[in-house]
Amino acid sequence: MSISQISPPSAEPITLSELKDHLRITDANEDALINGALVAAVRAIEARGSLALLTQQWRLTLDAVPDETVILPLSPMTSIDVVTVIDTAGAPQILAAALYETAPGSPGRLRPAGPWPNPGPRLNGVQIDFTVGYANAAATPEPLKQAVKILAAHFFQAREVAQEERLYSVPQSVDALIAPYREVRL
């Protein structure tokens, strides 16, 4: 099983201006550095919580046809776009939507609802393309946007590399803010 991004979000959940207000910076001298901290913070929050803060498309690749429900690794899932099985000739065969059931949300799920063809390749024979994320910045929950601001500020203020006496750490408030949105798997 592997996951890869098909299309990234078209923007970030907070703007450079919003982050500069949070940092209390009014000039444009460090905009590039601040924007870099913003992008890094968003990606770190998404990775830490298995989240997508804005709409983006991903592909989950499986080696075999699933026997039971597949729990998608990112949330919130809004749609399954296409399910493809690679046949013995190496050609992609798109499955009819009637052959699977979906449950959007956190976590998003997909379950076979009928017989799927067996994939030809022994590895990466099934591809599930799906869309995750909140529709726009206004729909992104405020606690997640606050976590981005806090982490971006931390990255901006602690620019030096880790040293023996200074280890990298994430402010505890970041984990507290993303905890309600993080998927717990048992």
Explained architecture:
By secondary structure, this protein is an alpha+beta fold. It has two domains: 2-53 and 136-181, Orthogonal Bundle (Hypothetical protein yqbg), CATH 1.10.3230; 56-132. It has helices at residues 16-23, 31-49, 142-157, 172-178; strands at residues 2-7, 56-62, 70-71, 77-86, 92-94, 100-103, 109-112, 126-132. Strands 1-2-8-4-5 form a five-stranded antiparallel beta sheet, with no helix packed on it. Strand 4 (77-86) and strand 5 form a beta hairpin. Helix 2 (31-49) packs across helix 3 and helix 3 packs antiparallel against helix 4. The longest helix has 19 residues, at 31-49.
SSE arrangement, N to C: EHHEEEEEEEHH
Fill in the CATH topology of the largest domain: Hypothetical protein yqbg
Strand content: 15-25%
| Global geometry | elongated
Structural class: alpha+beta
Major sheet description? 5 strands, antiparallel
Task: Provide mean pLDDT, rounded.
Answer: 91
Which parts are unreliable, with pLDDT below 50 for 5 consecutive residues or more? none
Mind telling me the CATH class of the largest domain?
Answer: Mainly Alpha
Number of domains: 2
Radius of gyration of CA atoms, rounded to a whole number? 20 Å
CATH-scheme architecture of the largest domain: Orthogonal Bundle
Q: Fraction of residues in helices? A: 25-40%
Give the strand line-up of the largest sheet.
Answer: 1-2-8-4-5
**End-to-end gap:** 19 Å
Q: How many runs of DSSP E, i.e. beta strands?
A: 8
**What's the number of helices?**
4
